[in-house]
Design a protein that fits this description.
The chain has about 280 residues and is α/β, with parallel strands linked by helices. Helix content is about 45%, strand content about 15%. The chain has a single domain, classed as Rossmann fold (3-Layer(aba) Sandwich). The strands form 2 sheets. The chain has a 7-stranded parallel β-sheet with strand order 3-2-1-4-6-7-9, sandwiched between helices. Strands 5-8 form a two-stranded parallel ribbon. α4 links the parallel β6 and β7. The relative contact order is 0.14. The protein binds NADP nicotinamide-adenine-dinucleotide phosphate.
Length: about 280
């Protein structure tokens, strides 16, 4: 079997950004990589090889995760780490989101991730080992204006992962949360679901301020390779640590939120983004 002694990672959303940077880094470090994506046939950067398999996985399709688990096990014998990275941000005030847009945000960021955990957990439980890494966000701990539904999905991932830490931890399975700050990827580009506020002129001024402050804030975004390094450290960490911050803004704002408490922090964020 190729890459027999190497460890194996399965990555969701490996077509772009943090997922792709992680696929590269684990591969460079000698791991077998199952880079999953919605359209592997369209991938041109990651080259399939003995230790790099491109596999189809759409987290919105319930049949997709079990199929990917089977393909990964068939290729490499076992899975050591499953990285739940696929996700995107819906941007706009709650009132502007259609039912379909809101459901899709939860389907990809929360229910899709749950489907992946349910698919790989029996494999990990049978082996009494394995690591589930969930990509959350600083938006899973603190909120920013015009991201209410995205924030809700990442808060959900935080609670879910704490729950899994107990449940899967009983079997020696590690659970990690990665909490990046602003990262230069397609998150703010083609992946963003920007909600139409044209029928809600009341929000125009608010959104204008949020957009301008966000543009300023994201000028200092970190590269996805920085998050990949944190994910790699989390994958090889033998401890039972759950949370890993990624990026200077994450390391600044998350402790500040804990220090100040939510009300004071929210007033500060309101000043930063809507004044
Ligand atoms: P990205 O470059 O837009 O990558 C997102 C990935 O998710 C793409 O590979 C995309 O695939 C995939 N995806 C979307 N819907 C999917 C579906 N239904 N099934 C499978 N894959 C799907 O953005 P990124 O920043 O690397 O995002 C990765 C993760 O980091 C997300 O969970 C995001 O919430 C989190 N995060 C990002 C930031 C940031 O500032 N960038 C900060 C904190 C957390 P396609 O190529 O097919 O669209």
């Amino acid at each position: 079997m190729p890459g027999d002694s190497a460890k194996t990672i399965v990555i969701t959303g490996a077509s772009s950004g943090i997922g792709k940077a992680s696929a590269r880094l684990f591969h460079e470090n000698g791991w077998n990589v199952v880079a999953t994506m919605r359209r592997p046939e369209a991938e041109t950067d990651l080259q399939p090889s003995e230790r790099m398999k491109l596999v189809a996985l759409d987290v919105q399709d319930p049949e997709s995760p079990p199929r990917a688990v089977a393909e990964a096990v068939a290729a490499f014998g076992q899975i050591d780490v499953w990285l739940n990275n696929a996700g995107y941000g819906a941007f706009g005030p709650l009132e502007a989101g259609t039912r379909e847009q809101i459901i899709r945000q939860f389907e990809v960021n929360v229910f899709g991730l749950i489907a992946c955990v349910q698919a790989v957990a029996p494999h990990f439980r049978a082996r009494r080992s394995g690591t589930v890494i969930n990509v959350s966000s600083i938006g899973g701990i603190m909120t920013v204006p015009a991201f209410s539904v995205y924030n809700a999905t990442k808060f959900a991932i935080e609670g879910l992962s704490e729950g899994l830490w107990y449940e899967l931890g009983t079997f020696g399975i590690r659970v990690r949360l990665i909490e990046p700050g602003a990262i230069k990827t397609e998150f703010g580009g083609r992946s963003a679901d920007v909600w139409d506020i044209s029928r809600l002129p009341d929000y125009a001024g608010f959104m204008e301020k949020v957009r301008a402050s966000r543009t300023k804030y994201t000028q200092n975004s970190s590269p996805p390779e920085l998050v990949a390094e944190v994910i790699y450290a989390a994958a090889i960490d033998p401890s039972d640590r759950l949370r890993y911050l990624a990026g200077p803004d994450a390391r600044r704002y998350v402790p500040l939120r804990r220090l100040l408490g939510a009300p004071a922090m929210m007033r500060m964020v309101r000043r930063m983004f809507t004044r």
